[in-house]
Amino acid sequence: MKKVTIVLADDHNVVRQGFRSLLEKQEDFSVIAEASDGLEAVKATCDLKPDVLLVDLMMPRLNGLEVTRQIGKLSPSTKVIVLSMYMDEPYVIEALQNGAWGYVVKESNISDLVKAIREVADGRHYLGSPLSDLAIAAYKEKTKGFSLDPYNTLTAREREVLQLVVEGYTNADIGSKLFISPRTVETHRANIMQKLSVSSRADLIAFAVKRGLVRR
């Protein structure tokens, strides 16, 4: 039997252990790696090329939506399922826009997650109850009429820097984590603030919270 390989990304250790224990009871599943933040999730997925990446929506260092977007480019064979506390329409739309194949609310039954993994592994989209295949089509149709979001004008590196800035890291810290110089970080910060039309770190934090990039 060919097993579905899975990378599991969540910043809460207890949650990861719980999901792993439940998923590994399925004979056709194999959890091959775990990640505790967004950058780790991208690296593990690019290194291992799993069939499925399960990623929490709200992740430190790089949020789940940006992880999803990057994986679509760096490991296109991997199907991403976003795990979330929210069933709000904007989050679902954003996940689909960024290339997610599935969206499952954390309060769902484990059977829903198992079904989601099997569905996306077979090349079909999955949205947890009460959403349906018709809802998927409707959400995709809505995305076509969306006006350009300033966030979408940011480069991948700028999004990484933004995430770390709002989490409180200094330019030196960010440079160390991303292997770039503090001066380069400062350049990225200036570009970010210009593109988002903000003038302070407080404005960046407010934007990130409103945009769903960090927890409220």
Question: Mind telling me the CATH class of the largest domain?
Answer: Alpha Beta
CATH architecture title of the largest domain:
3-Layer(aba) Sandwich
Largest sheet, in brief, is: 6 strands, parallel
Per CATH, the superfamily of the largest domain is Response regulator
Spatial ordering of strands, largest sheet: 2-1-3-4-5-6
Distance between the terminal alpha carbons, to the nearest Å? 43 Å
- The helix/strand order is EHEHEHEHEHEHHHHH
Strand content: 5-15%
Number of helices: 10
Which structural class do the helices and strands define? alpha/beta
Low-confidence stretches: none
Number of domains: 2
Number of strands: 6
Please bin the fraction of helical residues: 40-55%
Radius of gyration: 17 Å
Topology overview:
Blueprint: E1 4-9, H1 13-23, E2 29-35, H2 38-48, E3 52-56, H3 64-74, E4 79-84, H4 89-97, E5 102-105, H5 110-121, E6 126-127, H6 133-144, H7 156-166, H8 171-178, H9 182-196, H10 201-211
Parallel strand pairs: 1-2, 1-3, 3-4, 4-5, 5-6
Q: Could you characterize what this model shows?
A:
It is a single chain. This protein has 216 residues and is an alpha/beta fold. The protein has 2 domains: 4-144, Rossmann fold (3-Layer(aba) Sandwich); 150-211, Orthogonal Bundle (Arc Repressor Mutant, subunit A), CATH 1.10.10. Helices cover 51% and strands 14% of the residues. It has 10 helices and 6 strands, in the order βαβαβαβαβαβααααα. The mean pLDDT is 88.
